[in-house]
Amino acid sequence: MTDPVLPIPDDITTPWWEATRESRLLLQSCRQCNHVQHYPRVVCTACSGGELEWIESAGVGVVDSFTVVHRAPSPAFQAPYVIARVRLAEGPTLLTRIVGATDQELSCDIPVSLAWESLSEEFQLPVFRITITQ
Amino acid sequence: MTTATAIVGAAESDLGVTNSSILTLQAQAITRALADAGLKLSDVDGIATSGVSRFSATQVADYLGLQPGWCDSTFAGGSAYEMYIARASQAIAAGQAETIVVSFASNQRSARSRSLGGVVESHTPEAQFETPYGPLYPLSYYAMAAHRYLHDYGLTRADLAQVAVLAREWALLNPKAFRYESGPLTVEDVLSSTMISSPLSAADCCLVTDGGGAVVVTSLERARDLAKPPIQILGYGEATTNTSMSQVPLLPTGAAASGKAAFSRAGLTPADVDLVALYDSFTITVLLSLEALGFCGPGEAAALVASDRVRPGGDLPLNTTGGGLSYCHPGQYGVLLLVEAVRQLRGEAGARQVANPQVALAHGTGGILSTHATVLLGVDR
């Protein structure tokens, strides 16, 4: 990914982006109801509580679905690449990429594990690889 | 049970490649729809539109020299026009307006204003957490919904392709259709089309054209004194589900809640519907909407679309203009679903006319399966 679209962290999301420098994928957990959510917000979407703390994801999940993009939306991206929804073991689903996979290996419901790609000098972007099963 | 409101005028603007401005096309659609109803601009006291500028309804009012007592520019992509019918019906029932025009137009093909990545607003969560990965907007979300759907029901790209094949079959009966003279489309044509965001190829995607439309809404009582037979607004429903690509399950879509609300309000069931007009942004959209609206069970829509029931002469004619896939897709196609439903219910649809339809369903979908709105229309009884 050369010259990607750079995110602009805000009052709530700055800690999340800073953690990517240390290759840590953060999620929000509600102190009142234990609901886990991503992307970060000022409010818990399950109980409307406002006491949210950061937890670190174990980085394992399954592919909810995926698509191979063959025509990039801008010169910042080099097609083909795999866009996917990954459902984390902690509950939340995030949009991400699957890297290092062939078209034949890709399928819904396969297990994946966290990896990281450089996004800018400042931040990394969480991506996923297909989990090698023994 | 009905809403005591009706659609009394319906029209398209010029379609295809127009080299006209958005406001030119808006004015065409609105004045043609008013003429269809036997009304004039000076009769209009309500405007609902979107996609013109930041102040869309205000912009159209200014352009037409109107100062309406009611307006709505709810931004909900292609489903906004079905939502406007609900709002307009309520405003008329409440006495806030008497004659409302619902309109949309775009010159996106002439102006080359559409991009594969969509419009990114840097302050949104999507801009931080999704855009950096490079999804196509809206295409990649529909593609993920398609993979999930095909996986869950053991189907293939050929099942999606049937939707595009059907759309072309209807378009060959519609002289206004962008693909009217393109000849039939085959499953093989769709499968060999350029892959954009798997499993969706170029032929699974709607057209990019100019175009627009308008409908005129008033009270049923007043409608009975106007130029054409009134088309009753029998019911409506809507659901708003997501802006991001990660926050809600891909299936089923919000069309289920939207359709359920519309059928309940109208006191009807899918079995009562004689004509179906669904937003076909992509082939997958039609399969998901047919199932969510209750026209068939989960996983059964592909077989329905491949059957004779939805074709000319069938008992459940589907997307009789040729749809966004083969007729016209100006970006927020929902208003043209309403125009076609009105024409079919009036018996004005020419070579593609369905035999004596009494009830039509129009269902708009906006964004990335973000917004869903259903309208049930019927001939006056």
Quick summary:
The complex is a heterodimer of chains A (134) and B (381). Chain A is mostly beta strands and 134 residues long.
Written description of the protein model:
The complex is a heterodimer of chains A (134) and B (381). Chain A has 134 residues and is mainly beta. Chain A has one domain: Beta Barrel (OB fold (Dihydrolipoamide Acetyltransferase, E2P)), CATH 2.40.50. In chain A, 5% of the residues lie in helices and 38% in strands. Chain A has one helix and eight strands, in the order αββββββββ. In chain A, strand 5 and strand 6 form a beta hairpin. The radius of gyration of chain A is 16 Å and the shape is globular. The two termini of chain A are 31 Å apart. The model of chain A has no long low-confidence stretch (mean pLDDT 95). By secondary structure, chain B is an alpha/beta fold. Chain B has a single domain, classed as Peroxisomal Thiolase, Chain A, domain 1 (3-Layer(aba) Sandwich). Helices cover 33% and strands 18% of the residues of chain B. Chain B contains 13 helices and eleven strands. In chain B, strand 10 and strand 11 form a beta hairpin. In chain B, helix 6 packs across helix 10 and helix 9 crosses helix 10. The longest helix of chain B has 16 residues. The termini of chain B are close together. The model of chain B has no long low-confidence stretch (mean pLDDT 97). Chains A and B meet through strand 4, strand 5 and strand 6 of A and helix 4, helix 5 and strand 5 of B.
What percentage of the residues of chain B does DSSP assign to strands (E)?
Answer: 15-25%
CATH topology of chain B: Peroxisomal Thiolase, Chain A, domain 1
- For the record, the CATH class of chain B is Alpha Beta
Low-confidence stretches of chain B: none
How does the helix and strand content of chain A classify structurally?
A: mainly beta
Tell me the domain tally of chain A. Answer: 1
Helix run count of chain B: 13
Shape of chain B: globular
Which CATH class of chain A is shown? Mainly Beta
CATH architecture field of chain A: Beta Barrel
Give a quick account of the main beta sheet of chain A: strands, pairing sense, barrel closure. 5 strands, antiparallel
